[in-house]
Amino acid sequence: MRVAIIGSGPAGFYAAEALLRRTDAVVHVDMFDRLPTPYGLVRGGVAPDHQSIKAVTRVYEKTAARPTFRFMGNVCLGRDVTVEELRRHYHQIVYAIGNEDDRRLGIPGEGMPRCTPATVFIGWYNGHPDYRDAKIDLSVSRVAVVGNGNVAIDAARILLRTPAELEKTDVAAHALEVLRHSQVREVFILGRRGPEQAAFTPVELKEFGDMEDVDPIVAPEELAGCVIPEEGSSQQEKNLRVLQSYATRQTGAKAKKLYLRFLVSPTEIIAGADGKVAGLALEKNRLEVRQDGSVSARGTGKIEILDVGMVLPAIGFAAKRIAGVPYDEKAKIIANEDGRVVDPASRAVIANEYVVGWARTGPQGLIGSHKGASAHVVEHMIADGAGLEARELPDREDIDALLRQRKVQIVSFSDWKRLDDVEVARGELRGAPRDKVVDVEAMLALLAQH
Ligand SMILES: Cc1cc2nc3c(=O)[nH]c(=O)nc-3n(C[C@H](O)[C@H](O)[C@H](O)COP(=O)(O)OP(=O)(O)OC[C@H]3O[C@@H](n4cnc5c(N)ncnc54)[C@H](O)[C@@H]3O)c2cc1C
Ligand SMILES: NC(=O)c1ccc[n+]([C@@H]2O[C@H](COP(=O)([O-])OP(=O)(O)OC[C@H]3O[C@@H](n4cnc5c(N)ncnc54)[C@H](OP(=O)(O)O)[C@@H]3O)[C@@H](O)[C@H]2O)c1
Questions:
Q1: Domains of the chain, residue spans
Q2: pLDDT of residue 251
Q3: Which tens digits make up the pLDDT trace of 367-409?
Q4: How confident is the model at residue 233 (pLDDT cuts 50, 70, 90)?
Q5: Which residues line ligand 1 (CB under 6 A)?
Q6: Whole-number mean pLDDT of the chain?
Q7: Which of 35, 39, 41, 321 for mutating ligand 1's site (highest number of atoms within 8 Å of CB)?
Q8: Residue 385: other Cβ atoms inside 10 A
């Protein structure tokens, strides 16, 4: 059977591995990515100061070394090749395109200069080619990060790291330069619900307390009404203990402050005379327990203005629409039933098309969670695929010829490894694990030279 996987993030790679290691089917996988570089958010999302997480790519390298696997980088579905063409060249298609759009706050002022969505800020400091030219203005002293997930934590941490802390990471060189001259001294992380409902995880929360030049601060009244357990191993219990330690700790002499605030929702982003962010209107919330037991935030009408010069919403992501791929408008994912792509209106299954990862579920779950989840969808593929291999396809290389006709420079896995070597060698010069090439044209030019 010949399978196309679109997207080379964790979900795509785990799907490939689950297909290629089967003993009851011979599967050939072509994995496409719109970038010349593989690994999705492991390269473009995971924070540069969390290098150990990126070691997971060694597992993906083993998959890539399998003889029936091909990486076809720099090929974008919807731009260089259509879904119809893939249907002609492959027995099955797996969409593993992640969630590359931001969710919106939907409040007045969103989009003004210095209101910077998480994808832009994260892509910028991680050297994602789409965001290398983003205008990130860190001439302001106070920043609000909206959201209480780990992405909000990542963004705040990178804003508050010292240049010395950042230099030894693979933060993009252009971002390092701007962060070196950053005037940001205070960051506010804003949760719309309470500390007990926070989505961030204790290890990530605790890290603020170990940073070189940051005091994490929680006003004691933010924890009013929370029952802080002395022990307990749930995420909620551990978070509460870390938050309490921040509430009781002496504010030290560190130059930068991180404030964790709860039960507030932004209602308007306020512009200064220069048309850029100068403040954020926040409504105080109270918690309301719904009939099903879930807890939601309700506005109280009480408004305060937070004096900040930049707003960074980190409130979740959405899958991008691709022409010909059914889209679930409500969930903002590829329409599917348990990984089988369906028509969003009739829910009828679209034969031989599957979806894995964040494109299937929305932006939830760590890298490791995709291993089992992608393998689960592969079980459907194998069950549905019996006899499919009898359908005669064009030669495997015909797709390459089609792409070359369109002047697409396909980047193979060995090309990527050459680029990888260049980045690592450049990184050594500054004592970093790598110095990323952030421009697709430059990557392709480098490959043509080496
Ligand atoms: C900022 C951030 C930090 C994170 N940090 C951690 C962490 O420290 N630890 C952890 O366990 N998890 C972390 N996660 C979560 C983890 O990154 C995700 O669970 C995981 O990457 C999702 O995998 P995926 O394969 O679904 O999508 P992605 O990793 O996003 O991969 C999608 C791939 O599809 C490609 N693509 C998209 N559209 C097309 C197209 N049209 N044609 C061809 N290719 C296309 C993209 O280029 C990309 O390579 C983080 C997430 C974010 C946002
Ligand atoms: N270091 C790591 O391990 C790491 C780093 C980054 C990301 N990740 C993972 O990647 C996934 C995505 O992370 P994420 O932080 O984007 O998502 P997340 O964990 O779902 O957090 C999103 C946050 O945004 C809030 N929010 C949503 N809409 C809002 C609105 N309109 N106004 C105000 N707040 C709003 C949510 O509040 P409610 O709860 O009230 O909805 C929630 O606090 C998670 O699984 C995360 O753990 C892991």
A1: 2-100+317-411, 104-313
A2: 77
A3: 999 999 999 999 999 999 999 999 999 999 999 999 999 999 9
A4: very high
A5: 6-12, 32-35, 40-41, 45-46, 50, 53, 76-78, 96-98, 100, 122, 151, 154, 322, 357-359, 365-367, 370
A6: 97
A7: 41
A8: 18
- Of 81-90, 117-126, 247-256, 431-440, minimum mean pLDDT range: 247-256
Beta bridge partners of 190: 146, 261
Q: CATH for 104-313?
A: 3.50.50.60
Whether the per-residue pLDDT at 357 is higher than 90: the answer is yes
- The neighbour count for residue 125, using CB atoms within 10 Å, is 26
Q: What pTM was estimated for this model as a whole? A: 0.97
**Ligand 2 pocket check for 364: Cβ under 6 Å:** yes
Euclidean distance between the first and final Cα of the chain, in Å? 34
Nearest residue (CA) to ligand 2, atom 28: 315
pLDDT greater than 80 at residue 275: yes
Of the listed ligands, the closest to the CA of 365 is: 2
Residue 262 reports pLDDT greater than 80: yes
The confidence score (pLDDT) of residue 449 equals 87
CATH code linked to domain 2-100+317-411:
3.40.50.720
Q: pLDDT confidence of 253, banded at 50, 70, 90?
A: confident
> What is the pLDDT at residue 58?
98
Q: What's the average model confidence in pLDDT over 350-365?
A: 97
